[in-house]
Write the structure tokens for this entry.
Amino acid sequence: MSDLLKLSLADVTAKLRAREVSATELAKEALAACQSAQGALNAFTAFDEAKTMAMAKASDARLARGEGGLLEGAPLAIKDLFAVEGVSTTASSNILKGFKPPYESSVSQSWWDNGGVFLCKTSMDEFAMGSSNETSNTGPVNNPWKGAKGEMLSPGGSSGGSATVVAADLCFGATGTDTGGSIRQPASFTGTVGVKGTYGRTSRWGAIAFASSLDHPGPFAKTVKDGAMLLQAMSGHDPKDSTSLPNEVPDFVAACGRSVKGLRIGVPKEYRVDGMPDEIEKAWQLGIEWLKAAGCEIVDISLPHTKYALPAYYIVAPAEASSNLARYDGMRYGNRVEGKDLTETYEKTRAAGFGIEVQRRIMIGTYVLSAGYYDAYYLRALKVRTRILQDFDQAFEKVDAILTPSAPSAAFPLGSKSNDPIAMYLNDVFTVTANLAGVPAMSVPAGLDKDGLPLGLQIITKALDEETMFTVGAALEDAAGFTAKPAKWW
Amino acid sequence: MSVTADDVRRIARLARLAEPKDRIDTLVGELNGILAWIEQLDEVDIEGVEPMTTPVKFPLPQRDDVVNDGGIRDKVLANAPSSEDGFFVVPKSVE
């Protein structure tokens, strides 16, 4: 095995353009590496070798003609939430086992239009509901990073499979979706870059819906520049998604090279929680020092409603999910369990097809939307959501970007939180505010804790200003000089 | 507010989930734990605040009311649990 897979997306696409390596060779090597890692990492849900090799061949033909897009020839992974035509797409749920969409999601199509090569589908928490990738119907994904005593760790979730395949150098980028932190928290847990743009910047069409007003498709990448390339190649207006933004997409890659001098960086006092390890506080302080040294002005700010974001989210997201997941009734697609009449068929189908966490959230959502509780729970949560947006609007009058930790801990052992829903939900305490407000946010690896595990820092900017996010992200990456990789055991 | 075992059965029924007989007590505990945690939202002053349903600030786009898709019957039926002669086969729902 060569070291090609260790390259960044920017470097490998340069090699492909220079014809130092072919897309076909690269695809073969990536497929072999993934297949040999599957037993150990359990990160993949589907391959389609014929499709991969056909796409790689077409890519080589374009490269031979001196053509090709931003991602030309690079093998890329797709979270199992996105429809890939003719390839098993299940949202890691038994209810969709065997489902092969006859259409392609807009963001994956956009990657293929930019020359990307489909490599694999990746495991996730069922219907993106989870923060540890333990609710997948194919079992937990193992983080490539192991604990100090060699214990298996969660890669985070819900996009744990995608985070893992990027962290383990098995591909050059992967799609994720971020509804409450499902890209940024696993990125932090695996030492990768995880990005979500402004709500509506990337199309949700063909991405299996969890909570439509919060779902943000975005990429996992090895570097900030790669993250910019991958987001660039999946952004833009899509008439098939009524919430897709009509705005021009700026040059995210160019933004990575700009100076941060004079930028005002907000540090919110509310982003400290009980029991947060000192090392996360230290990493955050270090990040502040780095940006100061690079010429940024540090501004203390307050986002007073931060602590209410997570409880508001756990009303809004389940409410939307209970409505979105009503479509899984075993009639037109998905699996059916016959009952004595139509209602019993629905009930048996859904009880058999959905896992425990998904059923729990459907029930919470059903309850908060039911007669007599709508105003007390759902309507109140929507108003609290407005307060959270106002917090950001006020902060962005004073600052250009906000710096926070990405997650309240490093990766935790598999099984350690799976019996306590609220402890699990608290993983998203720093990330969920950006979903409620719809503003861009990314996680950048900043350092290692005492057990040698990666910790990420989060950069949040105002709506439509991904450029500043990438500028600050690239500066942070430069200063951190994060080059650590998990020792290969898979 | 808190839920009882009967509430859990009612919610399951509303959500078209077969009654989780062996998990009712567990669910009562979990849902009450989550609802108690959510109740901290009562501390927030929401007087005169508009509800936020989406981060999108432009009006819903509209298009001409024309047929712009179709003729893909076999694709539509490709993932059906049961189909016959170009139709979905579903349980009888009208007596």
User: Anything to note?
Assistant: The helical segments of chain B are 5-14, 24-38, 73-77.
